[in-house]
Specification:
Keywords: Membrane, Transmembrane, Transmembrane helix. With 62 residues, the protein is mainly alpha-helical. Helices cover 81% and strands 0% of the residues.
Length: 62
């Protein structure tokens, strides 16, 4: 069984939460909230992918 990487799990939960916020702000009809949530999703997912690439290059991931 593989070891759980808690940092990547945190990134995943943050991305899911950000996507859920988009739905909430759509229901609230807040254009600023929708735009900021989309930026937040891009930032969280981009950060996660960047971290994964750096860790893979350093040989910390399988």
């Amino acid at each position: 069984m593989k070891k759980t990487n808690w940092l990547f799990l945190l990134f995943a939960f943050a991305a899911v939460f950000s996507i859920m916020l988009i739905g909430v702000f759509i229901a609230e009809k807040s254009a600023i909230g929708i735009a900021s949530s989309i930026v937040l999703v891009c930032a969280v997912m981009g950060g996660g992918f960047t971290l994964k690439k750096k860790m893979r290059e350093q040989g910390m991931l399988d």
